[in-house]
Structure prediction request, 213 residues.
Amino acid sequence: MRRPARSRQLPTFLALLQSRPSRKDSSRPVADFLRRRAKASFLVRAHRAGCMLLIWVWPTPIRLSRDLAGSGQQREEVMTDVTLRNQNSELVRRGYAAFNSGEMDTLTQIIDESCTWHTPGKSPIAGDYEGREATFGQFGRYGGKTNGTFRADLLHVMASEDGRVVGVHRNTGERNGKRLDVLCCIVFDVKNGKVIDGREHFYDLYAWDAFWA
Prediction:
């Protein structure tokens, strides 16, 4: 039976998040309004990327000072958060590039020795993997079981100041006459410049499981 098409219409609450403040709310700090818009923008991008599940697994990604014209310390904290998010985003971008090109030395530098990895579903490769070697073993299964055709082509990167980064990508590959083409997002936990946890979420988990069955 053919599955019904997924609706691309944004939920009502997204529209509410994007709404402008009313006149009676005009006394509220500008930062409150900007924070709502930032959250709405994040959710809209996640929706368009086919990864609305991020709403449930991801905190509000941007925290702004309540007084944008506040003290120098506040401005410094905001700039520090922005710098950290940029650094973590670049780390994840490097990780995707290294994964697709098989640069194990780079992956070893990026992924912490105690990293944990989580792949959902009911396929033979689903499970929780503890340690860098076990994580690399999972990566090896992706490539080995697809004769090297497996790819994770990065589409979007979104980061928060608490060390979490979401990479939205498209997984493709071929195996036993089957073709894989599913959207996925990985929630990375980054600490001290290294990935300490990776959790995969698939837009079509049924298609993912069927490919590996």
